What we know:
Shape: globular
Strand order of the largest sheet: 5-6-7-3-8-9
CATH class: Alpha Beta
Mean pLDDT: 90
Bound molecules: adenosine-5'-triphosphate, magnesium ion
Low-confidence stretches: 239-249
Largest sheet: 6 strands, mixed
Number of strands: 10
Amino acid sequence: MPRPPIRIEAHRLTKRFGTVEAVTDLTFTAAPGTVTGFLGPNGAGKTTTLRMLLGLVRPTSGTATIGGLRYAELPDPPGTVGALLDSAHLHPARTGRDHLRVYGAMAGCDGRRIEELIAMLDLGPFVDRPARGYSTGMRRRVGLATALLPDPPVLVLDEPGNGLDPRGIAWLRTLLRSLAAEGRTVLVSSHVLGETQQLVDDVVIIDSGRLVAQGPVAELTRDGTDLEQLFLHATGGHTTGGHRERGHI
Ligand SMILES: Nc1ncnc2c1ncn2[C@@H]1O[C@H](COP(=O)(O)OP(=O)(O)OP(=O)(O)O)[C@@H](O)[C@H]1O
Ligand SMILES: [Mg+2]
């Protein structure tokens, strides 16, 4: 099924929270048909950037667009962009299937789509149990299914690998690749650089809100370095993220 190619673009994106510069002058693109990893240590500004992209945080300056439009300007925002931010807010007494039915009704999905996602995301073993008993990985899977309900051409996923075991990570890799192979634009954040190397085609690496490196993984790691080494080299060897405090004038 042909999909409209939709590019994600951040242009000179900047966000300050008081004296904290969460994101500074960040420019990058995520292309259709590709899984783009958005990487950086804790506090680097990944979630803030994704929230700006989804219209949840207003940029201090610069733009974040999807197919050239701000999220709120899209003709059908939820049908265009499937988002996974924090763990899905699952009602503890509801089952995963009920959760998908409620959100599916809002997205105009039929029962068949829900069954399709239950199979695709391997929710079968727990989807009829109340969500209060779900593990982190189970919540992540239901959250992903929720993001995929309207079969959106763009996916923005904040740390989808969190809480997944090695088998889950391998499964996620296959899932993201097949979603991108169908022409979708997939932007996926992670603070685990090494693990993500095998999950993505392109990377955008940030530290302290600023771009550190950008490009196809195959090109950036051509000389045998892995992304973690690349990051350490580019940032002068420190491993913990921080933020820039603006000096008082
Ligand atoms: N609402 C807010 N108010 C004040 N500071 C904020 C706010 N949101 C984020 N920050 C700060 O912005 C910086 C970037 O945070 P952000 O959550 O974007 O990082 P992250 O890369 O997603 O980190 P993690 O890997 O831990 O999820 C941090 O210094 C954080 O404390
Ligand atoms: Mg985050």
